[in-house]
Amino acid sequence: MKPKNHRHEGEFHHKHSLGQNFIEDEALLERLAELSMVSGEDCVLEIGPGLGALTRPLAQRCRRIASLEIDKTLLPFLRVALEPYKNAEVIFGDVMKMDLAALIQETFGDCSLRVAANLPYYITTDVLHKLYFELPQAKSIAVMVQKEVGDKLLSGPGEEGYGPLPIMCQYRYEVTRALDVPAACFTPPPKVDSSFMLLIRRSEPLYAVKEERFFLRLVRSAFLMRRKTLLNNLMSSYSLDRQTASSCLESAGICMQARAESLSIEQFCLLSDILFEQVCNH
Ligand code: SAM
């Protein structure tokens, strides 16, 4: 592949193993940058700049941008593509191995932070977890995901895909599907269609809980044994006797036969607070 519109040395060969499905359509790239909500006051963390196609329209809109890329063979192309953008910096390394909190503090200091990425699909869930815990200050996360992952992020109780990831994301962010992007828009085209998802941080989480980590752990353990009733689940996960576990459920207004997939986020929050008192204050 010859990178479009730019001076470059030689050709670039896509690495399937790194999820290198690039976007070349300038109009689409402009649209994605626009949907990312980036403005002149923002510093942007981009994950996976590839040949810098999305980096350029983002750099035009933001104060500064740091793009994390794992593939060093992209360096000469990125150097040329981003030459005119003095506010753009490329950092080589594996996003999964980086301490993002430290990196952002070092690179931008305290700033209005937004995240944008045409993510490699093999790390979507892990990256969202990492961003949630390491960059809680990010005002928004605009991210390209497989269309089914987009459905999952939007799912509610009883729907396919409902589980820890959508609950965690919806708890802190307002999640919307900004744009569906057909497979044909990528080079090479992946096997599945994609959705560009926008996660906008809420001014306050959906419901106040006493301990956010305790709540997220409860959600994870509830779905880990999703075939079990919540009652059995609580008994084994928190070493509670039947009587105590039932009274926790009763206080949260949850029926004894309920399973994780039927609980709303509000019910999980309520249960988390009741359980927290039971487990941590006894
Ligand atoms: N942003 C470009 C675009 O829209 O055309 C490229 C997107 S491509 C789907 C994903 C990019 O993420 C590739 O450049 C790939 O090398 C990079 N990547 C894959 N795994 C990564 C990781 N663990 N850390 C950082 N970058 C990674």
Count of helical stretches: 11
Helix content: 25-40%
Strands of the widest sheet, in order across it, are 4-3-2-5-6-9-7
What is the CA–CA distance across the termini?
64 Å
How is the biggest beta sheet arranged? 7 strands, mixed
Strand content: 15-25%
Question: How many domains, as an integer?
Answer: 2
CATH superfamily of the largest domain: Vaccinia Virus protein VP39
Average pLDDT reading: 94
What small ligands are held by the chains? S-adenosylmethionine
Global shape: elongated
Tell me the CATH topology of the largest domain: Rossmann fold
User: SSE order in H/E notation?
Assistant: EHEHEHEHEHEHHEEEHHHH
In short:
The protein folds into 2 domains: 16-201, Rossmann fold (3-Layer(aba) Sandwich), CATH 3.40.50; 212-280, Helicase, Ruva Protein, domain 3. Helices cover 38% and strands 18% of the residues.
Written account of the structure:
There is one protein chain. This protein has a 7-stranded mixed sheet, with helices on both faces. It has a two-stranded antiparallel ribbon with strand order 1-8. Helix 2 (55-61) links the parallel strand 2 and strand 3. The protein has 2 domains: 16-201, Rossmann fold, CATH 3.40.50; 212-280, rRNA adenine dimethylase, C-terminal domain (Helicase, Ruva Protein, domain 3, Orthogonal Bundle). It has 282 residues and is α/β, with parallel strands linked by helices. Helix 8 (212-224) crosses helix 11 (265-280) and helix 9 crosses helix 10. The chain has helices at 26-35, 55-61, 75-81, 100-108, 124-134, 147-154, 164-172, 212-224, 230-237, 242-251, 265-280; strands at 22-23, 42-47, 64-69, 88-92, 112-118, 140-146, 173-181, 186-187, 194-201. The chain contains 11 helices and 9 strands. It binds S-adenosylmethionine. S-adenosylmethionine (SAM) is lined by residues 18-23, 47-50, 53-54, 68-71, 94-96, 118, 120, 123.
